[in-house]
Design goal:
363 residues, alpha/beta, 15 helices
Length: 363
Amino acid sequence: MDYILLGVFLFISIVFSFLCSVWEAVLLSLPSSYGDVLLEEGKTIGKDIKALTEPENTEKALAGILTLNTIAHTVGAMGVGAMGVRIWQDGIMATAVIPVLMTLAILIFSEIIPKTLGKNNWKSLAPFTVRSLNIVLLILGPIIWLSKLITSFFVKEKKEKDKTSKTEIAVMADKGAADGAIEANESKIIKNLLRFDSILAKDVMTPRTVVVAANEIIPIIDFYESNKNLRFSRIPVFSNNKDNINGFVMKDDILSSIINGKGDQSLKSIVRDIMIVNEQFPIPDLFNQLMEKRGHIALVVDEFGGMSGIVTMEDVIETLLGMEIMDEFDNTADMQVLARKRWEMRAKNLGLIPSNAEDGTNL
């Protein structure tokens, strides 16, 4: 009978400690967004997981796990020790062998193995963990409440909830790409998006020195004949010089005017309004305005109202999706050089300028 009781105490101690270690590993591995993911998939368990990952509930769950684990270890050690003394009296089995075996059993079967299982299989174990922890918290509620009441005397100020910083998200994106959870280009987009609000219009615009523009007094047919291979669909139009951009013309409007016999009219007759922003205009705001107005091009002006460059929806999206965004401490002139090189590369690929040209071409 004593041997049976010894086995019962050992079994209870190991089993409950095993469960506590699994719950703890799963709980600490659960991202706060996993509940939302399951809810989007239509799984009702997502609501319980979302609630459990709230900082206050997580803290309460960890307190319940610690309480149950302590009870399991204490009761198990006392029971096994008492049975060992009854069976072997004061022999070496009771004083040395049993304590060592008990320690090893707890270390292997209630710490190493369960925590490894919980950490590596947290997704599949999450539903079981949430449901079983709710039962544990219900049973141990009074003890947890009492422990929180005691600890509240030692905590003078309530801790602020930890907030995930942009740097942490960027690191997580890099780790996700390294682990294969997301593609490298997806990680790049995430990091670009995190820094999107620090980019200004002047950083991504095509500088005025390489902007393809046309004088408004030029007849439509003459402009077309001189630029039959022009690939741009929107061409800024100026009066007298580039500092007086007053709109842009659509390539489709040029072709339509010629077909309708209006080719002798000036470009001014088909000019469309252009959005105007200053150099310090944030790219996110520009993106929103272009989307709202269904626009694709904006004029960037300096502090004196002179033309600094042109920024298009393509520039904005390229910044978000593909361009390597510079730090805010980098020299702005480098961005201007980069913008010029990007334009030249684009123009060379389209055959607008010779492949050996060193600078852009203006109309």
